[in-house]
């Protein structure tokens, strides 16, 4: 593996993803991880990430003693390079000016740049610079403002770059990272096939010959892919429980059932629509809705588990970003409770099976293709656990859900039909409680207003509203009002996140 020691850069995860894209397994550990912890990962190369600190800060984060002495290639990025240089006896100074943004390398060469030709645009974000080289090192790249932009020591196999090769703003950064992998002599075999084989072997080992596995299906890509993987690993010792809470989109249940059953997954659907509606009756507070749905979900799931059981294992589609131990904790303010429906408490008395704990979402999508998950599920936008309940503002009723479901279907099908679906990270329709006056034919109408929302985002923490073409929006507006008679007004949400959130509740 390539071990990335995280010193707090916002780009650290990107480094790991780049290596994974290059078919090499890589893990992120906190910068100060013990030597022992690092060795556990069997490192064939180490990356020291960037970070907000200066090597002169009193509390500057540093790797554990011995890590820098390991006989593997080490690449320092930004802060990582400064740290490497300083440790080797070089000098780092606060530069007169901060270099931020794109910079052209005026010269470059050496092992890291092997095979790279022409212009090299590098993304910079630093205020400290290496001013004096440590012994044994040479400068292998520079920019106008930064004479020491990349360094290498071929003998000890220590490398440093002041810029960020992992971001898209460094277009040839991928080649540089590939060169580092070559230097590490690492086999690039982290492919979808390989991942699937390993995961299946891992599940079989954990579950044994007899163990029975329970899985909750949400209709999303993670749990669906997990169902396919587990079915391959343990066959019908897997029971996949799909709770239909009545808050799903049009035809969603049938779609998921067909796809999974067709692939040999033993799927049990629990129709709990009435039960959920009963508990949601008259509830208009968004957080209250989430609480009720979460609680009922667990209750229904529990009951199904009892009826289908006994089970020894509970499978969950936990992903790597949920478990990365990295510098700088999360600690974000609780804007919405975001409990995932399907996120079950751990005291259900099962052992957890979490095969995707080491994977990024892109990797799950890749193995989903290999396992034969249909593309319309595989490439689906995220859908919140509480479903349409938080898109139906105020108290939820069957009638309102029915309207929303039809509007959502027109919008989402329209996006697909116009080839715009994949340009959006998430798209949704909201049924507002607003009723207003309109005219259709010669008749006055007094009907609902729906809002359409589409966003682009990388991490869903911030988002931009998608600049959908006016003509497309016009078509959607016409179709919705014509096909869904309870609606006479369509608006498009042009607010980013922040200040708005993606969902309206
Ligand atoms: P917001 O609205 O907070 O949404 O900008 C960010 C992302 O989270 C999803 N979301 C939820 N997912 N349970 C979920 O499983 C929830 O209660 C929930 N609320 C929001 C939302 O769809 C978006 O992708």
UniProtKB/TrEMBL annotation:
GN (gene name): guaA
Record-listed ATP binding positions: 218-224
Name of the protein described by the UniProt record: GMP synthase [glutamine-hydrolyzing]
Every GMPS ATP-PPase domain range: 190-380
NCBIfam families: guaA_Cterm, guaA_Nterm, PRK00074.1
Keyword Ligase: yes
Species the sequence originates in: Deinococcus radiophilus
SUBUNIT field: Homodimer.
GO molecular function terms listed in the Swiss-Prot or TrEMBL record: ATP binding; GMP synthase activity
Pathways involved: Purine metabolism; GMP biosynthesis; GMP from XMP (L-Gln route): step 1/1
């Amino acid at each position: 593996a390539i071990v990335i020691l995280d010193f707090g850069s916002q780009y650290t995860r990107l480094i790991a993803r780049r290596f994974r894209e290059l078919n090499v397994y890589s893990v992120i550990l906190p910068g100060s991880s013990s030597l022992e912890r690092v060795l556990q990962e069997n490192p064939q190369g180490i990356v020291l990430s960037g970070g907000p600190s200066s090597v002169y800060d009193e509390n500057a984060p540093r790797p554990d003693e011995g890590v820098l002495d390991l006989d593997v290639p080490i690449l320092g990025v930004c802060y990582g390079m400064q740290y490497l240089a300083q440790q080797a006896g070089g000098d780092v100074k606060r530069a007169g000016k901060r270099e931020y943004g794109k910079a052209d390398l005026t010269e470059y060469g050496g092992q890291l740049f092997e095979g790279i030709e022409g212009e090299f645009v590098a993304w910079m974000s630093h205020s400290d610079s290496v001013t004096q080289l440590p012994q044994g090192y040479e400068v292998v790249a520079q920019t106008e403002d930064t004479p020491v932009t990349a360094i290498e020591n071929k003998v000890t196999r220590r490398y440093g770059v002041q810029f960020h090769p992992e971001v898209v703003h460094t277009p040839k950064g991928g080649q540089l990272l590939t060169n580092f992998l070559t230097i590490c002599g690492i086999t690039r075999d982290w492919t979808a096939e390989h991942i699937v084989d390993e995961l299946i072997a891992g599940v079989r080992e954990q579950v044994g010959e007899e163990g029975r596995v329970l899985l909750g299906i949400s209709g999303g890509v993670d749990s669906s892919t997990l169902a396919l993987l587990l079915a391959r690993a343990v066959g019908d010792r897997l029971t996949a429980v799909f709770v239909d809470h009545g808050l799903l989109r049009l035809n969603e249940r049938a779609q998921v059932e067909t796809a999974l059953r067709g692939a040999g997954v033993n799927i049990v659907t629990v129709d709990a629509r009435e039960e959920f509606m009963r508990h949601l009756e008259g509830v208009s507070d968004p957080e209250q809705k989430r609480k009720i749905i979460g609680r009922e979900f667990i209750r229904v799931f529990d009951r199904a588990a009892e009826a289908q059981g006994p089970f020894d294992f509970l499978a969950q589609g936990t992903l790597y970003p949920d478990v990365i131990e990295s510098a700088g904790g999360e600690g974000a303010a609780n804007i919405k409770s975001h409990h995932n429906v399907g996120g079950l408490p751990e005291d259900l008395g099962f052992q957890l099976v979490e095969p995707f704990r080491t994977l990024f979402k892109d990797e799950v999508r890749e193995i989903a293709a290999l396992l034969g998950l249909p593309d319309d599920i595989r490439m689906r936008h995220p859908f919140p656990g509480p479903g349409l309940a938080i898109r139906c503002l105020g108290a939820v009723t069957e009638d309102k859900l029915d309207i929303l479901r039809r509007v959502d279907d027109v919008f989402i099908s329209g996006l697909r039909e116009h080839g715009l679906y994949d340009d959006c990270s998430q798209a949704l329709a909201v049924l507002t409680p607003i009723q207003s006056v309109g005219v259709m034919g010669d008749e006055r109408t007094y009907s609902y207003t729906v809002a359409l929302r589409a966003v682009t985002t990388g991490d869903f923490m911030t988002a931009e509203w998608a600049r959908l073409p006016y003509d497309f929006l016009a078509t959607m507006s016409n179709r919705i009002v014509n096909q869904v008679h309870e609606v006479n007004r369509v608006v498009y949400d042009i607010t980013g996140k922040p200040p708005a959130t993606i969902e309206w509740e």
